[in-house]
Amino acid sequence: MTDFDTLMMRRALDLARLGTGHARPNPLVGCVVTHEGRIIGEGWHRQHGGPHAEVNALAAVADPRLLAASRVYVTLEPCAHFGKTPPCAELLIAKAVPEVVVCNLDPNPLVAGRGIEKMREAGIRVETGLLEAEGRWLNRRFFTCQEKLRPYIVLKWAETADGYLAGPYFQPVQISGPLAHLATHQWRTEEQAILVGTRTALHDNPRLSARDWPGPDPIRIVIDKNLSLPPTHHLFDGKQPTLVYTYRSRPTQGNLGYITLSEADDLFPQLFSNLHQRNVQSVLVEGGPTVLSSLLRDGLWDELRIIRSPRTLGGGILAPKHGLSGLHEQFSLGEDHVFVYLKP
């Protein structure tokens, strides 16, 4: 592979990111078509149910005659099955594209190498694995869902400099500043669902929307084992799809769904298995210390984001203790500092 190949795949990955929040539950995919060292077409998967990246990139080529001498870069193996759209592997074959470079193979059992095989059988030269790690990171939600049969789980909390995340008796306190507030709403658009426990829902009465950042609102998820939350709380306002996981039984009401779990089995494996069945690929957990500590203890998480404020409380509800040493990323948002950890 040449430096030009790497540059083109990086461009395809940048294009793929443009589908964040809109392509799900499909993966993020970008595609670049080149001819004699220049880009002649590019595209990405813009919307779930809409044309795939390869379709958009090939359609953007002004002179289709050039495709017979082109080189195509795509971030994920072209599909080989009929879904909401026809197979992209067959489209590349039909357009007589001679060379295709693929970043990641698709772990979806409906694809899983069939796209590569189909193109090679048709005489297309296919190369794979270019910027593979970068591609897996970009589509970490998709790969986790396919390989671990559960959503990608992001834990998030804001804590004071002295380690508290709420006042005494769970009294809500504004800990982080305005930039961190905006970042939180941006993160909500990037994850398919957002989860809180009973205490957080009761004391904070959160909306769990992305109202302060452009993008789709997440599916709201609340754990309410005994259906004790007041029906007047924001979570039950019907403005967003909302799932209530409980040990009791209650019929679904509009976009408010009730899912009954077994008291005999662990709660979170049941919950995440149910979300996987619903094709929910990622969850942002903004729960209180009980929910967060439980997920940390059981290893049911993939990414941890801690917003640390310079302010102090001197008392209240302590933030969870994570004991992690491998810091993945650190950055500032105004006076606040964000620490990002990945599961070892």
From TrEMBL:
CDD domains named in the record: Riboflavin_deaminase-reductase
InterPro entries: APOBEC/CMP_deaminase_Zn-bd (IPR016192), CMP_dCMP_dom (IPR002125), Cytidine_deaminase-like (IPR016193), DHFR-like_dom_sf (IPR024072), Eubact_RibD (IPR004794), RibDG_C (IPR002734), Riboflavin_Biosynth_HTPR (IPR050765)
Cofactor(s) needed for function: Zn(2+)
Cofactor note: Binds 1 zinc ion.
Pathway field: Cofactor biosynthesis; riboflavin biosynthesis; 5-amino-6-(D-ribitylamino)uracil from GTP: step 3/4; Cofactor biosynthesis; riboflavin biosynthesis; 5-amino-6-(D-ribitylamino)uracil from GTP: step 2/4
Residue ranges of domain CMP/dCMP-type deaminase in the record: 3-127
Top-level taxon of the source organism: Bacteria
SUPFAM superfamilies listed in its UniProt record: Cytidine deaminase-like (SSF53927), Dihydrofolate reductase-like (SSF53597)
Record field: catalytic activity: 2,5-diamino-6-hydroxy-4-(5-phosphoribosylamino)-pyrimidine + H2O + H(+) = 5-amino-6-(5-phospho-D-ribosylamino)uracil + NH4(+); 5-amino-6-(5-phospho-D-ribitylamino)uracil + NADP(+) = 5-amino-6-(5-phospho-D-ribosylamino)uracil + NADPH + H(+)
Keyword terms: Hydrolase, Metal-binding, Multifunctional enzyme, NADP, Oxidoreductase, Riboflavin biosynthesis, Zinc
EC code(s) of this entry: 3.5.4.26, 1.1.1.193
Biological function: Converts 2,5-diamino-6-(ribosylamino)-4(3h)-pyrimidinone 5'-phosphate into 5-amino-6-(ribosylamino)-2,4(1h,3h)-pyrimidinedione 5'-phosphate.
Family designation: In the N-terminal section; belongs to the cytidine and deoxycytidylate deaminase family. In the C-terminal section; belongs to the HTP reductase family.
Name this polypeptide is given: Riboflavin biosynthesis protein RibD
Gene, per the UniProt record: ribD
